[in-house]
Every structure is written in C-alpha cells, then in structure tokens.
C-alpha cells in the first residue's frame, strides 16, 4: 500500500494515472480520510496519518508499485503530479526515501528468474558434460574406423 498526496492533481489527471496504473494491475483509490483512519486503527496502524488529500495505491508486489509511482513522477517532471507520503509494507511503515530505494530493486519476477537460472546452471553443465563425453566417444570410433579402412 502506497499513500500519495494528490492535492496537485486535477480529476482528469488522476483518472489518466488510474488507467495507466491499471495496465500494470495496480489499483488507485481515493477514500475519505475518516474511513481510512477508522480502518487503520482497526488494523493497528497507529503511526499512519491521513490528514491531506490521499490516494491509496494497491498491488501484489510492493517493488512494482514503487517503480510505477517513481516512473510517473519522473515522467511528469519537476512539478510532480503527486507526492509520496509513505508506504505500508508487511504491516510496517516505510518513508518516502525508502519507497524510492525500493523502486530501484528488481521485482519479484526478476528475482525468481535469477534464482531459477542459478539453480538450473549445474544441471545444464552436467548435461553438456555428458553430451561432450558422447561426442568424444563417437569421434574416437570414427578415428578407429578410418584407421582400419586405411
């Protein structure tokens, strides 16, 4: 969950951002502050204040959320379209700076691909070794055959 201050945004700009985020399977919701305060208190998020115009960004992977928000901020330039207030990740509050650092990390899919390729490397090497032994054996038989026929 990312909390953004969207007071600089107009309604059309917010709707465009929602559409853009939806392509990445990210939801952007605007909820009354009193409702959010009630929910946060029930969940035990005491250090999460909601005193401004807040937009709440939800998604499965916090790294993807952070990357998308920082990407939109960079694309819009120095004025910025919104400010990152904080994030809630695994029931812990993360600051604006931590969210920016999070946006530089590889996402879950990239990490999974790297892990699988690392796990697959020894098997690939073993298969190549077995194949090389067979190739050398066939070459040896070919040399033997050629020497017999000469």
Descriptive keywords:
single chain, 150 residues, alpha+beta, 5-stranded antiparallel beta sheet, 5 helices, elongated
Question: How do the strands and helices of this protein lay out in sequence?
Answer:
Layout lengths: L1 E4 L5 H13 L3 E3 L3 H11 L10 E5 L3 H15 L6 E7 L2 E3 L1 H7 L5 H42 L1
Antiparallel strand pairs: 1-3, 1-4, 2-3, 4-5
Describe this structure in words.
It is a single chain. This protein is α+β, with helices and mostly antiparallel strands. It contains 5 helices and 5 strands. It has helices spanning 11-23, 33-43, 62-76, 96-102, 108-149, and strands at 2-5, 27-29, 54-58, 83-89, 92-94. The chain has a 5-stranded antiparallel β-sheet. The longest helix has 42 residues, at 108-149. It is elongated. It starts with a strand and ends with a helix. The model has no long low-confidence stretch (mean pLDDT 84).
């Amino acid at each position: 969950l990312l909390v953004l201050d969207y007071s600089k945004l107009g309604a059309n700009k917010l709707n465009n951002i929602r559409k853009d985020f939806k392509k990445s399977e990210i939801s952007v919701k605007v909820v009354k502050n009193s409702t959010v305060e009630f929910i946060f208190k029930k969940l035990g998020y005491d250090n999460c204040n909601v005193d401004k115009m807040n937009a709440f960004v939800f998604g499965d992977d916090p790294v993807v959320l952070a990357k998308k928000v920082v990407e939109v901020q960079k694309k819009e330039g120095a004025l910025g379209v919104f400010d990152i207030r904080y994030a809630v990740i695994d029931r812990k509050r993360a600051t604006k700076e931590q969210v920016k650092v999070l946006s530089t990390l590889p996402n879950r899919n990239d990490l999974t691909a790297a892990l699988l390729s690392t796990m697959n490397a020894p098997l690939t090497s073993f298969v190549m070794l077995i194949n090389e032994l067979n190739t050398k054996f066939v070459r040896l038989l070919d040399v033997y055959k050629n020497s017999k026929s000469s």
